[in-house]
Write a structure and sequence with these properties.
Blueprint lengths: L7 H19 L8 H13 L4 H8 L3 H13 L3 E6 L2 E9 L1 H22 L4 H18 L13
Antiparallel strand pairs: 1-2
Length: 153
């Protein structure tokens, strides 16, 4: 019996569709912060302080889009501007305690929604999802290595 290679295009298509649907369901709370705003705020919290241009490159959005996001984050009190010590004409952004709390609340809400989505799946399906997580996280981070990473216990 010959072992057929999986059709990567078909896998990619199904994965993109499934991830898109899961994301839409996880973002169904219209009162919550938008995905792009939460993503930028989480990056600021994790990597900050950052220049807006550096943040727009990390988030893969245009500078005008990042300016709009930063304006909203600043108006909500989730970030602060500070002078760039290397260039007095530029500024850096950092997350405030309120911003860090907003990121944690958004993560908690999204986790709760996804937990509900998988709650009634058979154990074998949950195990299959768990087994795929390392590879999916590498894809999400843009890693293109062929070798599987091992995680420390």
């Amino acid at each position: 019996m010959s072992h057929r290679q999986p059709d990567r295009t078909e896998i990619a298509s199904r994965l993109a569709a499934a991830v898109g649907r899961i994301n839409r369901r996880a973002r169904s709370d219209s009162a919550a912060l938008g995905y792009g705003i939460v993503s930028a705020l989480a990056t600021i919290q994790r990597e900050g302080p950052l220049r807006p241009g550096d943040l727009s490159r990390i988030e893969v959005v245009t500078k005008p889009t990042m300016t709009r996001i930063l304006t909203e984050l600043e108006q909500r009190g989730f970030i602060e501007r500070e002078a760039d010590p290397r260039d007095g004409r530029a500024f850096m952004v950092t997350a405030t305690p309120e911003g860090a709390a907003a990121v944690e609340q958004a993560r908690s809400t999204r986790t709760g929604i996804v937990a509900e989505l998988i709650a009634d799946l058979p154990e074998a399906d949950v195990d299959a999802i768990a087994a795929a997580l390392d590879a999916l996280e590498r894809v999400a981070q843009g890693e293109r290595t062929q070798e599987a990473h091992t995680s420390a216990p």
